[in-house]
Amino acid sequence: MKKDIIHNDRKQECFAVNFKRKRKVLFRDRYLYLLLLLPLVYFVVFKYIPMLGLQIAFRDYKINEGIWGSAWVGTKHFVRLFASRDFYSILYNTIILSVANIVFGFPMPIILAILLNEVNNMPFKRITQSVLYMPHFISWIVLGGIITSILSPGTGMVNSLIKNFGGEPIFFMGNTGWWRVVYVFSGIWKEAGWGTIIYLAAISGINGELYEAARVDGASKLRQMWHITLPGIRSTIAILLIMRMGSVLQVGFEQIYSLQNDMVLSVSDVISTYEYRIGLLNMQYSYTTALGLFKSLVGLIFVSGTNYIVKLMSEGEASLW
How many domains, the chain? Predict the structure, then answer.
């Protein structure tokens, strides 16, 4: 009995000491927690509370009746979605464009960051970085107009060069094969430079003594990149790849919409444009909410699967959880 009383007293003392210690730490870092409060409020208000609206996918939603007043229909909209031919067409187009973006677009910021890191002429390096960053700040509507003008079969600069060399003009924006190429490389042009920022920051954290030791051993620049720079930013690459896989079905609406036309609709109609056309223009909110829920579920599976694979390959050193 006495042992139990002593044991309980010790537990209470430990709890009181831990509580005081935690309260002291909270008070010490109170301003940091206040700063953390703003993003928490943002995620709660704009990310978590709107998740209540996901039940629209299981209701026959009508604006005048509201979410709670609309009739519950279960999986009716999911059955309709998976029975639709349009769904498999837009899913195929989305996967093709997304995979092309990952294969060709994801490595470009890494390559550019490594090349920029090797530039010793600082004025030239700053000018190059500014030029590479610039397209990121231009809207897709403006860039879409620029790209369409440059690739115009009649007056476009590219086709003028082709004709000067004796070739036949190509209707890039009206050809389904060329349109996909234009889509992928326009995305690289706009975002690759901006993506180098994270990788340059990661490269700057690599110990410079490793490069000095490699130079002493006679390693070339290419060897230094392969054996020092790339392993040094491996965890950053892995984490960004995991995050990128979460949006595998979220091909950017603005880019597609600015480059899309009726002649290439068979390859350019993706989930985001389909949601806009069917959900907003035709006001089929429940149906497109079901599609959005499916898209989010697929993204979750891809993130979890990629994280698991990366965790196994890196032995837990480069993963989100």
Answer: 2
